[in-house]
């Protein structure tokens, strides 16, 4: 009988989380949301750039185009897809057997909070033929 009374009393004490526990949980969830808000746009922009690069290989208007025309077409595609603040010098075009290899390597950087920063590295390549097969 005494054990049952003690068990009920201890169960009443353990009714839920304390205020401090809620503050810790909310702080953790808030930090995770802040990370998503800061970093998700970078990955969305990278997805757009990856789509542009995949499209380069199938763009028949670029077959036989000069490197200057290829770069101009890429920048037009970037502007059309709302990719701004992009350094054109990160686009490299190298002559290879049968065409040009167009590559891009870039590292978007930013601040998360205080002294905590992020760096993401992305690299994409596409082959543009000099003539149709």
Derived from helix and strand composition plus strand pairing, the structural class reads: alpha+beta
- Secondary-structure element series: HHHEEEEE
Low-confidence runs (pLDDT<50, min 5 residues)?
A: none
Distance between the termini: 91 Å
Radius of gyration of CA atoms, rounded to a whole number: 27 Å
Report the β-strand fraction as a percent range: 15-25%
- How many helices in DSSP terms? 3
Shape: rod-shaped
Q: Tell me the total number of β-strands.
A: 5
Helix content: 40-55%
Mean pLDDT: 88
Major sheet size, sense and barrel closure: 3 strands, antiparallel
The main sheet orders its strands as 1-2-5
Structural account:
By secondary structure, this protein is α+β, with helices and mostly antiparallel strands. The mean pLDDT is 88. The strands form two sheets. A three-stranded antiparallel β-sheet has the order 1-2-5, with helices on one face. Strands 3-4 form a two-stranded antiparallel ribbon. It has a domain at 40-129. The protein contains three helices and five strands, in the order αααβββββ. The protein has helices at residues 2-13, 19-58, 67-80, and strands spanning 91-96, 99-106, 109-113, 116-119, 122-129.
